[in-house]
TrEMBL record:
Its cofactor is [4Fe-4S] cluster. InterPro entries: Asp_de-COase-like_dom_sf (IPR009010), MoPterin_dinucl-bd_dom (IPR006657), Mopterin_OxRdtase (IPR006656). Keywords: 4Fe-4S, Iron, Iron-sulfur, Metal-binding, Oxidoreductase. It is found in: Cell envelope. Residues 617-741 form the Molybdopterin dinucleotide-binding domain. This is Molybdopterin dinucleotide-binding region. Residues 1-358 form the Molybdopterin oxidoreductase domain. PANTHER family: FORMATE DEHYDROGENASE-O MAJOR SUBUNIT, TUNGSTEN-CONTAINING FORMYLMETHANOFURAN DEHYDROGENASE 2 SUBUNIT B. Its main location: other. GO terms for biological process: anaerobic respiration. It comes from the Bacteria. GO terms for molecular function: 4 iron, 4 sulfur cluster binding; electron transfer activity; molybdenum ion binding; molybdopterin cofactor binding; oxidoreductase activity. The keyword Metal-binding applies.
């Protein structure tokens, strides 16, 4: 989130793409309703399904899955034609909007109607409402991201906000609703296949920084890889790890240093919530060893046919652990332990520590928690400290190392203080009162120093850097094709010593950029740039000058290092409109995409899938469940609320196939897989669409596998996983699977 849930109450218009917060985020949705009550905010919902959120909307558009980009270009077409764009803002703070204007001209309301299914008049009405009620905030969730063009979708949304001048404004911004508790923290800490913690890149200088920060030799880290070159390459992603397993049948080339995956260790990830379940099963079956650490039996254990070397480790729940967690708005909170771990369960970190001891790297693994920075920019072991205290020392290690997103201020002491005094912060702004004055709840990053109060709204230049203000990040040079990439004169955070754009701060340029002179001692202590400066001097000098360490640049509407320099509509790989695939084709197939060949155009152009699979298929969450749903379905009382897997189907479509309400039906996918589910009549879906939740498992293509659960661990509710039939498709940048759009065929069971 650029802003926060509370900040939504300041919005005069709220537009939601591919999210259903009334169901998926019912507590957070209260802020949306308060915005309507207190601020007369206009609520606009764009979704393939008429959700409970849509029921609260002032206006709703039922869009065809995978066509969000045409819809947003259609909005921009109307905005530009009527002169509703914020030209002064765009000229000062945005690079490449002229190319967006050119593309938007093509997307007339009539063309948008043909491609998206949304009537032209509805598009015009929505655009009028949103453009004339500012500031407006744009909300999205997995309905926008989980597509083969998910990255383009999530670029298009900020571009719409930039055109209207809604970015960096209270009540504005782009606000992403995360699917789980602490998803933001997990990504911040490097649970990604293509970055180190804090989104540091996989380059030698960064590896050396982390080696130093962890107190180990760089050469020691190199030896953990086949050679140093593999340190700089992304690994397998969560979506397609199975492709690298030995003996898995695939015509997609693998590039993994000539080896295959033989073992899998899973911590708290519901395998059945990932697409391509048939291939995942094949991957599981061909492993030499499978280890599952989870409070409940991970259903990977019953999906596989493996009989040997499957180990289930009882991990503690969140109530039996403590430590730092991160909310969707980048703010930290301290989770206190409620009870000690029950029976033989252990917290995740203890399992990892035991594993590290047995594999011989425990000392290297934990050494960083015993280290501290010195004033001269060096690192040393903390005197007389022999053992670390978990999780406080781990939290302080994170604060010491992760500077890219500004976690320096996130010490365990400060985060605990915020959690203990949560009642001293304003619900809407997050601003502290009394002893917490000058800080925002949870110290939302970037929190530049140990005294910084956090940054409530990203890219806000109306307040000073010390108060959480900043411009856009300078990360891609000073100019492109002769055009300035830095913010124009007059665009700067309040109180800045520099009243124009400026580059990110480095040891080499700080004196020239800030107009200061460093002492010889300061020069000796500084790191090469603010991201690797253990002394903190570069950031401190920036704070004194009212300057943001990462620079003050223009937001990029053109991203020249992506396949599509500007967002372009590309039809889903399995499109119900085969005629449009010729006009809006998929990407070229991509070799070595997270170590595996990933197909795009070869799949899309193979045939007209809509002839055999004419029905749109969408997936989503239920209010009573999250993720793979095992912890919810293992609860007798929660399971009773949704006791079985189901498929929302329009009565007209059901009647056409002879399917009665409450009867069983088959869903077939283009992948050759099928699932058997109960039909549930619903008018929330169109007559050419079905909807299914993704929280179930235990059955596989009509076969009951719940007998594979260890005695006493079978959940109270089981069913087919919809991800057995979600279609092949992966984002071109992140490789996130395309689960929010696809085709299927149905029949009476």
């Amino acid at each position: 989130m650029t802003n926060s849930l509370g900040d939504i109450q300041k919005s005069k218009a709220i537009i939601i793409f591919g999210a259903n917060p009334a169901v998926n985020h019912p507590v957070g949705f209260q802020h949306f309703l308060k915005a309507k009550e207190r601020n007369n905010s206009q609520l606009i919902v764009i979704d393939p399904r008429f959700t409970k959120t849509a029921a609260k909307a002032d206006i709703y558009a039922q869009i065809r899955p995978g066509t969000d980009i045409p819809f947003m270009y259609g909005m921009l077409n109307i905005i530009f034609q009527n002169g509703w764009d914020d030209k002064e803002y765009v000229d000062a703070r945005v690079f490449g909007m002229d190319k967006i204007r050119e593309e938007a001209k093509k997307w007339t309301p009539e063309l948008v109607e043909d491609v998206t299914g949304v009537p032209a008049q509805t598009l015009i009405q929505i655009t009028n409402l949103y453009a004339k009620n500012r500031p407006g905030t744009l909300i999205w969730a997995m309905g926008l991201t989980q597509h083969s063009i998910g990255t383009s979708n999530t670029r298009m949304a900020p571009i719409l906000q930039l055109a209207l001048g809604n970015m960096g404004k209270a009540g504005g911004g782009t606000n992403i609703l995360r699917g789980h508790d602490n998803v933001q923290g997990a990504t911040d800490m490097g649970c990604l296949a293509d970055s180190l913690p804090g989104y540091y890149g996989l380059v030698p200088v960064v590896w050396k920084y982390f080696a130093k920060s962890w107190g180990v030799d760089y050469e020691y880290l190199v030896k953990q890889f086949k050679d140093a070159s593999w340190m700089e390459k992304p690994g397998f992603s969560l979506a397609r790890w199975w492709a690298g397993v030995q003996n898995v049948k695939s015509d997609e080339k693998i590039e993994n240093a000539g080896t295959s995956l033989k073992a899998l260790l899973v911590f708290g990830n519901g395998i059945t919530s990932v697409a391509q379940q048939a291939k995942i099963k094949e991957g599981l079956d061909n492993l030499d060893m499978l280890v599952l650490a989870d409070p409940f039996v991970n259903e990977a254990a019953i999906l596989t046919d493996k009989k040997d070397n499957v180990f289930i480790l009882p991990a503690a729940t969140q109530f039996e652990t403590s430590g730092l967690v991160v909310a969707t708005n980048r703010s930290a909170q301290w989770r206190y332990k409620v009870v000690e771990p029950l029976y033989e369960s252990k917290p995740d970190q203890e399992i990892m520590f035991e594993l590290a001891k047995r594999l011989g790297f425990y000392e290297q693994y934990t050494k960083g928690m015993l280290m501290q920075e010195t004033k001269d920019g060096k690192l040393e072991m903390i005197p007389n400290k022999k053992d670390f205290v978990w999780p406080e020392d781990a939290t302080n290690e994170i604060a010491r190392i992760i500077k890219t997103i500004g976690l320096t201020g996130w010490t365990a002491e400060r985060v605990k203080k915020h959690t203990d005094n949560w009642h001293m912060f304003d619900e809407v702004t997050g601003a502290g009162m009394g002893p917490m004055k000058g800080e925002y709840y949870g110290l939302p990053w970037p929190c530049w120093t140990k005294t910084h109060g956090g940054s409530p709204n990203l890219y806000d230049t109306s307040i000073s850097v010390k108060e959480g203000g900043m411009g856009f990040r300078n990360n891609f040079g000073l100019e492109k094709d002769g055009v300035n990439l830095l913010a124009e004169k007059g665009s700067f955070p309040k109180g800045s010593k520099i009243e124009t754009g400026y580059p990110e701060i480095t040891k080499a340029n700080i004196e020239a950029v800030l107009g200061i002179t460093l002492t010889e001692e300061e020069k000796a202590a500084c790191g090469a740039n603010w991201k690797v400066d253990n002394s903190g001097i570069l950031v401190q000098k920036c704070m004194e000058a009212g300057v943001c360490p990462y620079g003050n640049a223009k937001a990029r509407a053109i991203v020249w290092n992506f396949p599509d320099h500007i967002p372009m509509h590309r039809e889903p790989l399995h499109s119900p409109r085969h005629d449009l695939t010729l006009k809006y084709p998929a990407y070229a197939d991509k070799a070595n995409h997270f170590r595996v060949m990933t197909k795009y155009i070869s799949v899309q152009s193979a045939k007209d899938y809509s002839k055999e699979f004419p029905i749109n298929m969408v997936t989503g969450r239920l209010v009573t469940m999250n993720g793979a749903g095992i912890e919810n379905r293992a609860s007798k009382y929660i399971a009773a609320l949704t006791p079985e897997m189901f498929c929302d189907i329009h009565p007209d479509l059901a009647h056409k196939h002879g399917i009665k309400n409450g009867h069983m039906m088959w869903i077939h996918s283009p992948e050759g897989t099928k699932i058997k589910v109960k039909a549930k009549y619903s008018y929330t879906v169109l007559p050419d669409m079905v909807f299914m939740p993704f929280h179930f498992a235990g059955y596989f293509q009509g076969v009951d596998r719940t007998g594979n659960f260890p005695a006493g661990t079978k959940p109270f509710a089981s069913g087919e996983s919809v991800n057995t039939v979600t279609n092949y498709g992966y984002d071109i940048i992140t490789q996130i699977p395309e689960t929010k759009g696809g085709l299927c065929r149905i029949e009476k069971a």
